Amino acid sequence: SIQPRTRVWRYVTDNRTHYHLGYNFFIEGHSSDSKKQFTVAVSEKQQLKGLFRIDDMLEETAWTKKYKEREFADYYRVGSLKLLDRENEKFEVISPPWIMMPPSIQIYEERGARMLSKSLWKTKCFKCIWVNMANVEIQWDFDKDIKKYRFETFCYGPKSCKYYKMGRPRAVPYKNRGSAIDEGYLDELCTEGRDEND
């Protein structure tokens, strides 16, 4: 799968800002530390140059991530990235899940994201270009600039998608307060520029 790589900044339920950093490649293969399934963070520039897609056979070098609680991808700072073989030049599925060449980062930014059920991300939606697992940074204490970290699943796909489910509301903790609950209101704000079929 190829999905957008994002960092999401959360502050109670007043703010949920999505920063779009590039792409995550979910790979089945072999790594130097014997992983057979792993995720590699790839820059937008590298994706635009290679126009990579599902089923491509690649060879690359990358760094192991430093902070396991902050970065979902297993490897980042990809260096040498080579296409060894392309099984299918025109492989596309144009109904959900959408399996095709991922769009530019600008398109993801313009569309905005809604929260997505984690179980759907793992199953029916995993190969879809519109879903992602985000690195989430929660502002837990503004005065001392203390943050907490976790990972969350989101969807940039059409609002009319038959598979879409938000999943459980998400708690957003803050120091010395009960957790605020994101029940989907911020989804409406993030995607207000789209109608039901977009």
What report would you give on this structure?
This protein has helices at residues 44-50, 105-111, 118-122, 185-190; strands at residues 2-11, 15-28, 37-42, 56-60, 63-64, 75-76, 81-86, 114-115, 131-141, 146-155, 170-172, 180-182. The chain has 198 residues and is mainly β. The chain folds into 2 domains: 2-20 and 99-190, no CATH class; 22-86, no CATH class. The strands form 4 sheets. Strands 3-2-1-9-10-8 form a 6-stranded mixed sheet.
Strand content: 35-45%
Q: Runs with pLDDT <50, length 5+?
A: none
| N-to-C series of helices and strands | EEEHEEEEHEHEEEEH
Order the strands across the largest sheet as they lie in space: 3-2-1-9-10-8
Number of strands: 12
Number of helices: 4
| Count of discrete domains | 2
- Provide mean pLDDT, rounded: 93
Biggest sheet details: 6 strands, mixed
Give helix % range.
10-25%
Gyration radius from CA atoms, angstroms = 17 Å
**First CA to last CA: what distance?**
22 Å
Q: By helix and strand content, what is the structural category?
A: mainly beta
**What characteristic shape results from the CA principal axes?**
globular
